[in-house]
From TrEMBL, chain A:
Protein name: DUF742 domain-containing protein
Lineage: Bacteria, Bacillati, Actinomycetota, Actinomycetes, Kitasatosporales
From TrEMBL, chain B:
A Pfam family matched in the record: ATP_bind_1
Keyword GTP-binding among record annotations: yes
Keyword annotations of the record: GTP-binding, Hydrolase, Nucleotide-binding
Keyword Transcription regulation among UniProt keywords: no
InterPro entries: Gliding_Motility_GTPase, Gpn, P-loop_NTPase
GO MF, any single term: hydrolase activity
CDD domains linked: Ras_like_GTPase (cd00882)
Protein name, per record: ATP/GTP-binding protein
Tree of life domain: Bacteria
Family under the similarity heading: Belongs to the GPN-loop GTPase family.
Gene3D superfamilies registered for this protein in UniProt: P-loop containing nucleotide triphosphate hydrolases
Source species of the chain: Streptomyces scopuliridis RB72
């Protein structure tokens, strides 16, 4: 069996808006505090959204139903990863979003996390 | 609005989830990464797209351009809520050397990697194994058996892939949930054994 649906070499539809236009010219490269598995949700009081750019407002709306990872926000919004990270970073600074940080690198080898992963897999599929 | 998924179909995480972990599912093109993720994920698999700048071909310079091109790298991923407070993400990561920028990002914060191999095309797994080893990601080999004909024995595969004795090798069928979950369990047990 060969899977033909893998994304590796697929052509991708062109962007309608160049990414740096959406981000007001901010650089797409460099370090951001957001990783793909940072969990994000909208703050409870988000009444003053009138001044937000349309893309930011749409991301905020997507985040308003509960926690999602940055990767899921990227997947649902169909925006590039770098653009989403910048917009989410702005929204967080502006107080619209809350985040739950991913596991710090030093704790990755934490036996508790591995044990929890193992127990979870065994409970669901064992 | 098309942007927003339906709210009632398990799109969002449970309120109690505090921690997110990730495991990479890697392998060459068409080895079954997307199938594996689709089998294991509790949500329909999603795709991320990242813009990457690459050094261009020499011909670009002749035309007076900057010699750089932008390409898009796509990755499929899935989600598994494993407890009230922990969610695991499985990221299918392409195995080509030209995606090193993606690998730098993906290796950061990964618990480990499951390397899917096709027993009939072992040599195509060499570049991806070079990458996991280069980035120091602990891994387990999952031999994706598309049918029951075991033409290659485990020992032959270990030898062909030049595995260390401690590197686990497990057979799995990426279309089967129990079999795929077992491959992840073997990987996590191996990650635990490295701590002892």
């Amino acid at each position: 069996m060969t899977t033909s649906d893998e994304p590796d070499q697929e052509p991708v539809a062109p962007q309608l808006v160049r990414p740096y236009v959406i981000t007001n010219g901010r650089n797409l490269l460099g370090d951001h505090e957001f990783s793909l598995i940072t969990l994000v949700t909208a703050a409870e009081d988000i009444s003053r959204t009138g001044n937000l750019d349309p893309e930011k407002r749409r991301l905020l709306e997507l985040c308003s139903g509960g926690y999602l990872s940055v990767a899921e926000i990227v997947g649902h919004s169909h925006l590039p990863v770098g653009v989403v990270k910048i917009l989410l970073s702005d929204l967080t600074e502006e107080g619209y979003l809350f985040t739950r940080a991913p596991i710090p690198a030093a704790k990755l080898v934490d036996r508790h996390i591995l044990e929890e992963v193992l127990n979870g897999l065994q409970a669901r599929f064992g | 609005m098309a942007f927003k998924p339906a709210l009632d179909d398990g799109v969002y995480l449970r309120e109690s989830v505090q921690t997110a972990a990730k495991i990479l599912v890697v392998g060459h093109f068409a080895v079954g990464k997307t199938t594996f993720i689709g089998t294991m994920s509790e949500i329909p698999p999603l795709r991320t797209e990242e813009l990457m700048t690459q050094a261009g071909e020499g011909i670009d310079d002749l035309k007076g351009t900057t010699g750089k091109t932008t390409t898009t790298v796509a990755m499929d991923f899935g989600r598994l809520t494993l407890s009230d407070r922990l969610v695991l993400y499985l990221f299918g990561t392409p195995g080509q050397q030209r995606f090193v920028q993606v690998w730098e990002d993906m290796s950061r914060g990964a618990l480990g990697a499951l390397v899917l191999v096709d027993p009939e095309r072992l040599e195509e797994s060499f570049p991806v194994m070079d990458l996991v080893e280069h980035y120091g990601i602990p891994y387990t080999i999952a031999v994706n058996r598309f049918d029951d004909t075991e033409t290659h024995q485990d020992e032959e595969i270990r030898e062909a892939l030049d595995l260390l004795p401690e590197t686990p090798l497990v057979n799995c069928d990426a279309r089967d949930q129990r079999s795929s979950a077992n491959a992840l369990i073997v990987l996590v047990r191996y990650l635990q054994s490295r701590l002892r």
